[in-house]
Amino acid sequence: MKRSATLFIGIFALCNMMTSHTKGQLKPITLHPKNQHYFLYNDKATVLITSGEHYGALINLDFNYKTYLEELRSNGLNMTRIFTGAYAEPKGSFKIDRNSLAPGPNRFICPWPRSNEQGYAGGGNKFDLTKWDESYFARIKDLMSVARENGVVVEFTFFCPFYDDSQWAVSPMNAVNNVNGIGNGARTDVYTLDRNGSLLLIQDSLVRKMVETLNEYENLIFEICNEPYFGGVTMEWQHHIASLIQETEKKLKKTHLISQNIANGSALITDPHPGVSVFNFHYATPPVAVTKNYHLNKCIGDNETGFKAQADSTYRKEGWEFILAGGALYNNLDYSFAPSFEKGTYKYGAQQPGGGSTALRQQLRYLKTFVEKFDFVSMKPDSTVITDGIPAGARAHVLTEPGKQYAVYVLHGNKVNFGLNLPAGKYSMQWLDPVTGEYSKKKTLRHAGGRAELASPAYVFDIALRIVAK
Q1: Domain 382-469: which topology?
Q2: Which pTM was predicted?
Q3: What does the pLDDT average to over 161-169?
C-alpha cells in the first residue's frame, strides 16, 4: 500500500515537472513558417477570430476577466484585445452604454499608482508617473495566465490617441491628473517625438516595463497604438515604439510579434517598420486591405469593427469576407460584454453604436471551424478561379490550393449558379450555411477538367462551399 502510494506520488510529481517544462518551452505565437499570412501557435496553424469586449478588461476593476475569457473559449473564439490604461474614456463616450473602457469612480487601475493627492478627473486621487502600481501588474499577469489557460491570444495595445478633449481629460498622462507636472501639452502632441515634453520618457519606461513583465507569455501580440491615424500620432513615433519593443526583447528569453494599426478601411502600406509582422485595419469591408498588401507576406488583420449598427449579419459577413480574402485576424466589438455581464448577456439599448450577441459569437465560431477544416496554410486567395455566374451586387472570395482544396464564400444574392475552374479529378463538396452552421450532405464531383458548374441551395445573406480532392 505504501509502495503504491509512493509510486503514485512519484509519477504525479514527474508529470508536473514535465508539464512545467513543456510550458516553459512553449514559443510565442508567431508567423507560420510555411505561409506567413497566417499564425503558428502551440505548433498549430492558427487564425485569430473573436467578438470581444471594448478593451477595458484589464483597467476596469468591475470587469471579471476570468468569466469573460471562459466565455470566449466556450464559443470557440481565441483572441481578445486590451488597453494598458494610458487611455481611458469618460462615461458616455461614443454613446456606449456600460463601456468597459469607462470605469466608475475609483474603479480605474493603470500602470501608475495613485498618490495621496486628490484631484483625478475620473474620480479619486491623482497618479504618480514615476512609480509602478504592483497590483496592476499582478492583475495583468493573472489575466494573461487565465487567457492562456483558455486558449486566448491577447493583443496588448500600448497606446490610443485622444480623439477629443474628453478622453485627454481622464488620462493619467495629462498633467492635471498626475503629481509630476508631466503632460502639459496639447493632446495632439502626446504621441510625437519632438513635441510631447517629458511624456516620451514616461511612454518609453512603460513600454520597457510591460515588455519585461509579459515576456514569459506566449499568448501575446504587442500592438503599438490603436487608430494612430487620429489625434496627431506620427509615424516616426510609432517606429520608435516598435524599435523599443525589439531592443527590450533582445535581452529577454522570448520574442513577440508586433502589430501596427494602419487605417480604417484600407490603405497601401509603404515603408513598413521591419519589426512589424501584423498589419491591422479597422472596419475593413470590402476586404481591399488584404488584396492591396498581400505582397508583404505578413499577417493582415481586421482587429476592430462594430460601429455599423447592431445587426449580427453585418459583422458575420465582414468576418467571413475578410478571412476568406486571405486575412488572418478578425475582431468584432461585442457590446453584449459589459461589467457584470461578462458572459455576454447585456441587453444594450438602441443608442449603442454596434452589436454583439451569443448568436454572433456562434456564427464566428462556424467561420473559424470552417477554415480550420482545411490545410489553410497551403492555400492562397484567388477569386479568378470563378469563371462566371456571380450576380451583380454579389461578391465572392476563394482560398485555394489548386487541384486539392477550395474554400468559397459568396456574399449577397439568394442562390448562385457559377463556374469554377477545376483540374480534372474527383472532389468532395459541401455547402455551409454561415448563419446556422449546418452543412449540406456531401456530394462527389467527378470532373474532366476546366469549368465546373456549381449550383448552390437557396440562402438568405451568404453561403460557403468546401471542395476537397478525394
Answers
A1: Immunoglobulin-like (2.60.40)
A2: 0.94
A3: 98
